[in-house]
């Protein structure tokens, strides 16, 4: 019997023993829920907070970027304005591509 339905029946009958029993059941269920919630919060916070050091994450991001042929610095820079910026960016992109190819050749 659920707490709400039990409380409805106890209130209609105005039986203090039934009301007390329903309230005790509610308190027990509430405590169980509180314990389960605390356990879940503790488990998830410890699993996510100390999961992986930042340097490992950065290293993995770099590795994936290398495999995909993406230059992180080029992607993360703010866009430059004007033609000079675009020309310089194109020259730097070519240089980065050449360096990336040399790096991949050395790895293979």
Outline type: rod-shaped
How much is the average pLDDT? 75
Seen as an oligomer or otherwise, the chain set is: single chain
Number of DSSP helical runs: 5
Largest sheet: none
Distance between the termini: 68 Å
Strand content: under 5%
User: What is the gyration radius calculated from CA atoms?
Assistant: 31 Å
SSE succession: HHHHH
Summarize the amount of helix as a percent range: over 70%
| Beta strands, count | 0
Stretches where pLDDT is under 50 for at least 5 consecutive residues are none
Structural class: mainly alpha
Q: How would you characterize the overall build of this protein?
A:
By secondary structure, this protein is an all-alpha fold. It is 84% helix and 0% strand. It contains five helices and no strands. It has helices at residues 3-13, 16-49, 54-68, 72-76, 82-107. Helix 1 (3-13) packs antiparallel against helix 2 (16-49). It starts with a helix and ends with a helix.
Properties at a glance:
108 residues; mainly alpha; 0% strand
Write the layout of secondary structure elements.
Elements: H1 3-13, H2 16-49, H3 54-68, H4 72-76, H5 82-107
Please sum up the structure shown.
The chain is mainly α. The protein has helices at residues 3-13, 16-49, 54-68, 72-76, 82-107.
């Amino acid at each position: 019997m659920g707490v709400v339905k039990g409380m409805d029946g106890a209130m209609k009958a105005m039986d203090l023993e039934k009301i007390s029993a329903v309230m005790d059941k509610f308190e027990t269920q509430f405590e169980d829920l509180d314990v389960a919630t605390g356990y879940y919060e503790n488990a998830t916070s410890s699993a996510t907070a100390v999961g992986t050091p930042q340097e490992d994450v950065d290293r993995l991001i770099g590795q994936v970027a290398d495999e995909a042929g993406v230059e992180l610095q080029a992607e993360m820079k703010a866009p430059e304005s004007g033609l000079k910026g675009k020309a310089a960016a194109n020259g730097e992109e070519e240089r980065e591509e050449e360096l990336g190819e040399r790096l991949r050749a050395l790895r293979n």
